Amino acid sequence: MEKAGKMKVAIQGEPGSFSYEAAHKFEPEAEIVPCALSAEVFAALDAGTVEAAAIPIENSLAGSVLEHFDLLLKHDVRVVRETMLRIRHNLIALPSTKLDEIERVYSHPVALAQCRRFFAGHPKMQSLAFYDTAGSVKQLAGLNDRRVAGVASRAAAAYYNAEILVYGIEDNPENYTRFFLVRRADEAGIAAGANKMSLAFTLEHRPGSLMAALAALSAQGTNLTKIESRPVHGKPWEYIFYVDCQIGEAAEESRVLQVLSAHCGMVKELGRYAEARGVE
């Protein structure tokens, strides 16, 4: 039983997932609240049934988690911390299973796509999409079938008392995911050592508007570390831009918001936080 007073952190996915690992990296003593869908994670945060949410925002190979950008904009929340995890995929099965017994391998589609070389070398194994990496390991006990395996983290194997048959089956070892810790806006505060900001903005539909906005930021000496565009729902050919930038002080953040407001129809701060240092 969880002790009273532990922070409740929602994740999309099962215990043992990479989001589960990230949540514990943010808050080692947290009570993790698994959700089936990302929308449910944010709904739990809105309702106050959890105090925070740990969400993946970008993978070094697969790119951005676009749904999470949309949910950050839609909800009254703020990013308060970020961290990065090294993503290591492992072939996991029931204890005492032999590799040549495996016929079907389940995992999240992104995880399977990152292990193509392994499956090409094991043509007997059929890769099948599943809703979650850790969920693919969770189901092993229920199926009780030595022909079935999952692809997930070492934490998932340990959590569900399964066995890793092959470690590190991902094609590219330079596989990292950046995670955000998100809280309700009225509880977010300003993190100590905050030197990075995420924001969203829309532009007037005229030639050169994006260039003008970016030039205004450049004139402030602001270093953009990421820019991402998403379509505005219901407004064809109009876009929302998501930006991460480094900031040196609170005054710089105010200047960034001010110069963007002169060029943009909407500007929303998504969070101020300390830039992640180091990878696990």
Describe the structure.
The strands form three sheets. Strands 1, 2, 3, 4, 5 and 11 form a six-stranded mixed beta sheet that branches. Strands 8-7-9-6-10 form a five-stranded mixed beta sheet. It is built from ten helices and 15 strands. The radius of gyration is 21 Å and the shape is elongated. A hairpin with a 7-residue loop joins strand 13 (223-231) and strand 14 (239-246). The model has no long low-confidence stretch (mean pLDDT 91). It is α/β, with parallel strands linked by helices and 280 residues long. It has three domains: 8-86 and 175-188, D-Maltodextrin-Binding Protein, domain 2 (3-Layer(aba) Sandwich), CATH 3.40.190.10; 90-166, Periplasmic binding protein-like II (D-Maltodextrin-Binding Protein, domain 2, 3-Layer(aba) Sandwich); 196-273, 2-Layer Sandwich (Alpha-Beta Plaits).
Question: Could you outline the blueprint of secondary structure elements for this entry?
Answer:
Blueprint (H helix, E strand, L loop, with lengths): L7 E5 L5 H9 L4 E5 L2 H10 L4 E8 L3 E2 L1 H9 L2 E10 L3 E4 L10 E4 L1 H5 L2 H5 L5 E4 L3 H11 L4 E5 L1 H6 L3 E4 L9 E9 H4 L7 E8 L5 H11 L3 E9 L7 E8 L3 H12 L2 E10 L7
Parallel strand pairs: 1-2, 1-3, 7-8, 7-9
Antiparallel strand pairs: 3-4, 3-11, 5-11, 6-9, 6-10, 12-14, 12-15, 13-14
